[in-house]
Give the backbone structure.
Amino acid sequence: MTRRRPFRTASIAVVWLWLGLFALLPNLGLLLVTFLERGESDFVSLVFTWDNYARLADPVFVRILGESLWLAAASTLVCLLIGYPFAYAVATARRGLRPWLLLLVVIPFWTNSLIRTYALIIILKSQGIASNVLMALGLVSEPVSFMYGEFAVFTGLTYTLLPFMILPLYASIEKLDKRLLDAAKDLGASSLRAFWHVTLPLTLPGIVAGCMLVFLPSLGCFYIPEILGGAKSMLIGNFIKNQFLVARDWPLGAAASTIMTALLVLMIIGYWLSSRRVALRERKGADTGAATAGRTPDGGHDMTHGADGARRARGRA
Amino acid sequence: MADQEHIIELRGVTKTFEDTVALDSIDLTIRNGEFLTLLGPSGCGKTTILRLLSGFEQPTAGEVRINGQVVNRVPPEQRQVNTVFQNYALFPHMTVRDNVAFGLKMQGVAADETARRVHDALRMVHLETFADRKPRQLSGGQQQRVAIARAVINNPLVLLLDEPFSALDFKLRKQMQLEIKHLQRQLGITFVFVTHDQEEAFAMSDRVVVMNEGRIEQIGAPKEIYEEPANMYVARFVGDINALPGRIDAVRLDWSAAPGAPLAPPAPGTPEHAALPPDLKPGEHLYDATVGGTVFPVRSPRRLAPGDAVQVLLRPEDLRIDRIAVAETPDWPHLWGRIEESVYKGATVDLVITLDDGQRLMAAEFFNEDDEDINYNPGERVAVSWVDGWEVLLPDDAA
């Protein structure tokens, strides 16, 4: 297969070029900067140092990282808990209704997410919509503010990233063969157990994809914590942004960014390894199975041999 | 356990989906331990009956009883009925072992008993060495066996099979038919089988239910259905059939006539009795009927009167084809025709014959060691008749 495919070669080359120029190169530059010293006039001065990483061992940074991880994990979990039932409802809705329900998920993207984040302030602020509703219901006696803190940031992240959870979940639930649920019920499983033993494991790829699409951006997001979290909450995204734009400490910001990227890459590798181990185990099962296949082929039944024998006997007669 | 003679009873069961009637007042009784097949084209309601039995649908009207209990509102997971699904519906993320063990797991059967029963079930379908594989690592026939093992391990009162062989190739299909039949005898479980394949239905079943447009057309043993179809629909659905329009000329023998009356059956021992066709069954009336201008003796359990329009139904293998020299005329009732086509089939030769009045007939001649001469040439002139008494008479509703 050495036939040349000029179009294929060209289109792949464009992608490689793009990735190389706009992803690999900047990231390598960033990595380089982490080993340089902070400069007075040009942001960085060309002196090799490990100091930037040493500075990140600061308990303050560790606490920021921990808090960011926690907040990202919590919003991922809540997105999953809200997104799964919604995706399930959409995927099992009437076929004609599904595109419209999916449209509801996509519509928010038509508004800039920065604007949507500001809009959240109107809901969450003191005497905002949420506060007024709670007052009207008599649940609180005086106006409450949900703004400026972990809760507001968490709300913002969950709200903004929910569609990224719903869409891959929808894709995997919609693909699920509903006859398998019939089979489970036929074999005596209640709806709940059928869900647990069949639906959940078979939609796991969608769950993993959705969780990654929510977890990764929520870890690095800086504008939502900045707008909704106020001065009280500092997350790793804000920390990095501040190093670059406020403190003008590029090497430190680059080092923090590199640490975060390394963490994410480690997580993806971990997931990849665990799924590969499952696949390997399956393949091993297949190999041993293939070895025994010769012994018990499809035709391994006495009655068929009998029929063949009868045919041969008739052939002779 | 099964303690009723009739394991399943449907009484006046109607099922409508929105505005279409899938089942129209069905009455059906299934005996304990029998192999019953629901046969019909797609959309005839056979799968709907299966889904009513498995519990995935509820009847709009009427009653479904399993083992004497009305189960109209009992959900599938609480019924002692298991299904082999059309595309097997094996759980792709589980091994063969876990698939087969699923039902026992749901019942909370102990681990060691489950292991033993799973092993037994897999051995029964010759797959004990495949327990650790995933379904997609098996061939179609093997997946089929897993689906069967997964269903029968639960000792259901009734096993439902929904076109289970539709994804298999011809040879494997034949083999699985034998295996399923064998398994059913071995287990003694009632099997309700759904298919649109008439041959498959006949090969496997104790009784066949022929369905059409939500109604049952005929219930009977395969032989009855094939040899004595109740109507044109059944006749045409189960195999090739020739329908010759005819008219009753005279009644020769009438079993409903009073003893001693002119047409009454003669008393045994009389010469009239000896003159009756030897294979005449009690209750079969004798008639003369004109078919294609020739008068034939015919018989039928139906009461018909002179002048009645009838369809004379003949299977291709019922027809008798004789090569006659041009000048001769056979001394038995016959119709003249010409060989149109002759197709060699191995065990038979299939003939297409055009009668002189333009009607086309299908005939099948069997090879016979004494008479090698059934290789007809197109255009050859033949006399067509049939084995006396093998015809089926139906009233001609169209006339």
Notes: The CA atoms of residues 180 and 186 of chain B lie 10 Å apart. The mean pLDDT of chain B is 87. The longest strand of chain B covers residues 6-17. The longest helix of chain B spans residues 170-187.
